[in-house]
Amino acid sequence: MKRVKIGSVVLELVQGNIANQPEMEAVVNAANAMLASGGGVAGAIHSAAGPGLYEECRPLAPIRPGQAVITGAHGLPNRYVIHTLGPVYGKDKPEDKILAECYRNSLKLAEEKRIASLAFPAISTGIFGYPVRDAARVALNTVIAMAPQLKYVQKIRFVLYSDSDLKAHEEALEALMNTP
Ligand code: AR6
Hints:
Layout: E1 2-6, E2 9-15, E3 26-30, H1 40-49, H2 51-57, E4 68-72, E5 80-84, H3 95-112, E6 117-120, H4 132-146, E7 155-160, H5 163-177
Parallel strand pairs: 2-7, 3-5, 3-6, 6-7
Antiparallel strand pairs: 1-2, 4-5
Helix pairs in contact: 3-4, 4-5
Bound molecules: ligand AR6.
Ligand AR6 binds next to helix 1.
């Protein structure tokens, strides 16, 4: 676990399950275009949320890479779920710009809803194949750049599934914090 402050915003890196973050007001889903269940994060979120989540998602689909939409959290212990579609590595280009849009658009929606705390998974780094070190740099850079403009979001947590993903994010954060 690592925690830094950027202005008034707390940024945390933890290892865990995005579907079990009860103290966060919203969690982000690494969705598919149809906002349906699937493997990885989307599977964990939809199975914990129950069928009502997909019912609410269906009329909002399809979404395009980089886009984000918001729903209630249903059976999850949160208030909202923000669903964003990451780039498929090697297909949706430029991958870094699209991945950055996912984080930016999710934070914009969170601000619109006056959400105080938001947890992200490592979008695109599973089934979509984005190398985790590169994705970590893009994700953290985007969040750090937006932090000073945030009025409502005061805590941002990255929930990493594996030890090695947590380590990759810790290293990327250290490198970014040491860059003038
Ligand atoms: N909590 C936190 N992180 C997780 C969890 C979890 N419960 N499960 C997996 N991860 P992925 P993508 C990690 O594949 O690459 C889905 O089927 C995982 O180890 O969930 O954006 C959708 O329906 C990886 O590091 O998302 C889409 O079709 C990261 O979360 C597609 O996969 C993202 O992995 C989206 O692919």
